[in-house]
Amino acid sequence: MAPTTIDILKNVPGVQVYNARGPLSSSTYNRVIMRGQGSNPARNLVMVNGVPQVEGASSDFEWSLINPRDIERIEIVRGPGSALYGSQAMGGVINIITRRPTEEKGKTTLEAKYGSMDTASASASYSRKEGDWGFFGSATGGGTGGYSVIPGDQKKLVAGRSVNSRNLRSRNDFGRGMVTYDPDPTSSLTMSFMHGHFANRGTYDYMPDFLLFDMQREAGDIRYVKKFKGAELTAWGSTAYQASNYENANTTTYKSITGTAPAIQRDFQGGASLGYDAGLGNYLTMGLDAKHATYDRRYDNGGTVGDAYGSTGGDSTVYGAFLQDELKLFDGKLIVTPGMRYEYTSLYDGYYELRSAGIARRDVDGDILRALTSRIGARYNALSWLSLRSAYGEAFRAPTLSELYGLSKIGLSSYYGNSALKPERLKSIEGGVDITPLDNLRFSATVYKNHATDYIDNVLVAANTYNKMNIGTVDTGGIETELDYTFLEFWRSFINYQRSDPKLMTGKYIGQRVTGTPLSTTSIGLAFNDPKLFSLSVVDRRVGKIWSNSQNTVAYGNYDVVDVKLSKAFQLTDSKLELSLEVSNLFDVQVRETSSTIAPGSTITAGAAWTF
Q1: Residue 478: pLDDT above 50?
Q2: Using alpha carbons only, what angle is made at residue 19 by residues 540 and 45, rounded to the nearest 5 degrees?
Q3: DSSP labels for 326-378?
Q4: Which tens digit of pLDDT belongs to each residue from 424-438?
Q5: Does pLDDT of 161 surpass 80?
Q6: What is the CA 408 to chain-centroid distance, rounded?
């Protein structure tokens, strides 16, 4: 079992994982990159059981709040999906499918793990099916003693003593609940609930209880599916509440807290879709959806000068409608899938102030954004073992509330949103081949080219001052390949390689690469799995250069790590006991993906799980 959910994606072709602080990574340092679209989470859509999960303010998704044992599978759609899923599906879509209750006698799993840096976790889950009803619940709690996340060249000295190198540690607790109702084979109602809390503390020698980041999220959703002859109706709705906070330190003495920044975010979403067989080889899918997000952040100054030094916030409402056709020709050998979506985005009630910088409260005029995006894909099954595919797609991404109205002063640096931001737009073309010459041998390759306009990024406008801006046009060329081979019944090997080269084509830094995106990643793995003996996997992952500044004069990445996992299951009379040992970064290679932080070295985790 992977240590966290995001670790499952590290070796998936077409997906690059930004996990700069290992088990200490929160949403800011725990992101997924698809098709070279940078580490901005707003460019990828994450869903759980088909329901969008990312929050409206910045589109962050907290990967650490889902236990890998709760997951049945993960579905990935690479490339722009705005024509079907909307604004946030610019780089791709990740849909996490969780386990549904199916055990009539009930099933309980207890698990505990302990490892390096005093990292520990304990979890419990219960699943049961009672007639038409099903019940599932899980809870996990844990944390880590942490390590010093500050690289040596970034340590700050006061009176000859480093003041920002103390260990960063974390604590978290999260849980999920699910109730299902299946009155007949054609109907299904699912209600889900999620709680999560994540807190990082420490980093400063003089203030061991410094709060770096604290986040609590409560969410719930409901999904109904009804199948008819040749048709399927789906309806869903969700709501989420998220509170977060962090503290600012005195950057001269590092002995006092100069302020906090509590924030509240609320999200409401809902939609419905209908798919039906229209005859003549056509299967049509149409749908409507809507979402509303509100964001408010307050910047308190710790009571040193008045009661506050700033605040910011705003609201957004989005309405969307889509239509897609799946057309099968030549007895199904050729499948053509055209689709289009119209999206209406209203941005309103925006405001910001920063008294410490002399900026009084300003109310921002609202804005209306409209977009019509399209996509067409084709797949030709030339032979039983050979398929060719191609696609053209468009994407549209409205600026997030944080990008529009965000305003903060962190350390010596000030970060400003920009209410005049234009939406990002992208056009993409791709082609690929899937080859399965043997039942146990599979090869696939995809090449793609993206053309993005009005790309949004932070721009240094003055000393220690950054503004969100549309930096121009970005072209990205890339390739994704995957080779998978199983042999001798219990053995599996794979090689995945991907390369993406996002390059600025206009503006001040024309010809330079976009920051934060690995130029290439390679994963080579070998696994042995015999239920009667044991399971063993060894994976080598190579990450290429990651540019850190717009001038492309500073780069990180360029590391090669090996991960090993060994597990053994013991079948008892009425239960099963599984013991596991995981070693991440076996050879203790230094992993650094940004200027401000480094990942831990080699870590070892031992675990035991009892299922009955």
Answers
A1: yes
A2: 110
A3: EEEETTTTEEEEEEEEEEEEEEEEEEEEEGGGTEEEEEEPPEEEEEEEEEEEE
A4: 999 999 999 999 999
A5: no
A6: 24
Question: Tell me: the pLDDT tens digits for 87-113?
Answer: 888 889 999 999 999 998 899 999 999
Q: At residue 194, what is the residue type?
A: M
For residues 37-47, give the mean pLDDT: 84
Closest CA to 239 of 272, 266, 216, 215: 266
Does residue 203 contact residue 164 with C-beta atoms inside 8 Å?
yes
> Is residue 352 very low, low, confident or very high in pLDDT (cuts 50, 70, 90)?
confident
Q: How far apart are CA 43 and CA 91, in angstroms?
A: 5
Among 609, 593, 611, CA closest to 22: 593
Burial class (CB in 10 A: 0-12, 13-18, 19+), 556: buried
Please, are residues 600 and 588 in contact by the beta-carbon 8 Å criterion? no
Whole-Å CA distances, 570 to 523, 529, 565, 582, 610 = 30, 14, 17, 18, 10
CB 545 within 8 Å of CB 523: no
Handedness of CA 44, 50, 52, 53 (dihedral sign): negative
Looking at the domain covering 5-611, what would its CATH class be? mainly beta
Measured in whole angstroms, the distance separating CA 246 from the mean position of its chain's CA atoms is 21
User: What are the sequence ranges of the domains in the chain?
Assistant: 5-611
With contact defined as beta carbons under 8 Å apart, do 116 and 72 qualify? Answer: no
pLDDT digits (tens, 9 = 90+) for 565-610: 999 999 999 999 999 999 999 999 999 988 888 999 999 999 999 9
Residue 540 has what pLDDT?
A: 97
- Paired tokens of 56: 């409206």
The contacts of residue 438 (CB under 8 Å, 6+ apart) are none
Structure-token pair, residue 230: 């040749």
Q: What is the 3-state secondary structure (H, E, C) of 94-126?
A: EEEEECCCCCCCCEEEEEEEEEHHHEEEEEEEE
CA distances from 2 to 77, 86, 583, 585 (A): 21, 30, 11, 14
Per-residue DSSP letters for 174-193? EEEEEEEEEEETTEEEEEEE
pLDDT digits (tens, 9 = 90+) for 502-511: 999 998 889 9
